[in-house]
């Protein structure tokens, strides 16, 4: 009797565990994204159930056209195989969206999201021509991997991992580079915020490479009252003027407890040589570690 009860309980537990796992991305789906480009015109959760490819020159692979939409790719890939395209993996307008668990590859922009109070989390964005994520100031960006942004053979301009955002945490931005063959003013950024009052914390930014007269800034805040803390930033050795690990361009921003290396530069004027640090912020201090 007791053995039967134990077996029944185990079966129920296994069934519950299986349902709980499936429910992370499959329960309550209002629709499935089964081809690209996909237009989402119904509120609710949209799910993926397989990898998808497209050869799209412009527009969005996934396009969100109203408020209150969740896109859960469940780890599946949306890939653009057209070289030199000007498309984005996800294009969204409106408020209160969540975009998660997407593997986005081969687009000019990984995700372009306009509107308020959106969340972008747990995505992998790679082999992008221009910008990994470009969003509004109230967007939360967390736990994304943005790898290999830049190298477009025709684009001259700003290359960036993340542009915009409010609270930006636990992301990896690795290898952002301008193509020296076409980008004579190849300015590159790892994370460039817009607006004010954001928290940029526990991110890893590595391997920024500017081109021509361009500069590199691993983390740049545009606006006041940002808090930049516990980030880990590694160059290559960018010992040139105006290359910064952290640069605050607004007022009353704080940078503390960050680790940065590879961004110092030296200025020589007459008989005087001055070494400038790579963390430039209104209130920089605490346990920042700033090394050449």
Q: Which secondary structure elements does this structure contain, and how are they paired or packed?
A:
Elements: H1 2-23, E1 29-33, E2 38-40, E3 44-48, E4 52-54, E5 60-64, E6 69-72, E7 77-80, E8 88-92, E9 98-100, E10 103-105, E11 109-113, E12 119-121, E13 124-128, E14 131-134, E15 140-142, E16 145-150, E17 159-163, E18 167-169, E19 172-177, E20 185-186, E21 188-192, E22 199-201, E23 204-209, E24 211-212, E25 216-221, E26 227-229, E27 232-234, E28 244-248, E29 254-256, E30 259-261, E31 265-269, E32 272-276, E33 279-280, E34 283-285, E35 289-291
Parallel strand pairs: 1-3, 2-5, 3-6, 4-7, 5-8, 6-9, 7-10, 8-11, 9-12, 10-13, 11-14, 12-15, 13-16, 14-17, 15-18, 16-19, 17-21, 18-22, 19-23, 21-25, 22-26, 23-27, 25-28, 26-29, 27-30, 28-33, 29-34, 30-35
Antiparallel strand pairs: 20-24, 31-32
Q: Return the domain count.
A: 1
- Tally the beta strands: 35
Q: Which outline best applies?
A: globular
- Main sheet properties: 11 strands, parallel
Can you give the mean pLDDT?
87
Strand order of the largest sheet: 1-3-6-9-12-15-18-22-26-29-34
Please identify the structural class as seen in this structure: mainly beta
Low-confidence region ranges: 1-23
Structural features, described:
The chain is mainly beta and 292 residues long. The chain has one domain. Helices cover 8% and strands 48% of the residues. The chain is built from 1 helix and 35 strands. The strands form 5 sheets. Strands 1-3-6-9-12-15-18-22-26-29-34 form an 11-stranded parallel beta sheet, with no helix packed on it. It is globular, with a radius of gyration of 22 Å. The N and C termini lie far apart (71 Å).
């Amino acid at each position: 009797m007791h053995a039967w009860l134990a077996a029944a309980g185990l079966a129920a537990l296994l069934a519950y565990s299986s349902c709980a796992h499936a429910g992370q991305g499959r329960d309550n789906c209002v629709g499935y994204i089964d081809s690209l480009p996909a237009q989402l015109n119904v509120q609710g959760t949209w799910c993926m159930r397989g990898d998808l490819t497209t050869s799209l020159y412009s527009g969005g692979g996934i396009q969100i056209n109203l408020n209150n939409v969740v896109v859960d790719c469940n780890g599946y890939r949306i890939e653009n195989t057209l070289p030199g395209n000007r498309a984005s993996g996800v294009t969204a307008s409106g408020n209160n969206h969540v975009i998660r668990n997407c593997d986005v590859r081969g687009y000019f922009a990984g995700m372009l999201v306009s509107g308020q109070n959106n969340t972008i989390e747990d995505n992998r964005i790679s082999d992008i021509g221009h910008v990994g994520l470009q969003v509004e100031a109230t967007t939360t960006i967390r736990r994304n991997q943005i790898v290999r942004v830049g190298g477009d053979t025709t684009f001259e301009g700003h290359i960036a991992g993340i542009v915009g955002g409010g609270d930006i945490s636990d992301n990896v931005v690795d290898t952002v580079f301008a193509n020296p063959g076409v980008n004579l003013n190849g300015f590159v950024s790892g994370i460039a915020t817009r607006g004010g009052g954001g928290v940029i914390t526990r991110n890893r930014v590595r391997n920024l490479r500017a081109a021509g007269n361009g500069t590199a800034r691993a983390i740049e805040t545009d606006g006041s009252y940002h808090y930049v803390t516990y980030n880990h930033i590694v160059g290559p050795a960018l010992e040139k003027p105006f290359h910064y690990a952290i640069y605050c361009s607004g007022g009353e921003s704080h940078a503390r407890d960050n680790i940065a290396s590879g961004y110092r530069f030296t200025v020589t004027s007459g008989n005087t040589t001055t070494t400038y640090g790579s963390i430039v912020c209104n209130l920089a201090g605490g346990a920042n570690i700033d090394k050449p």
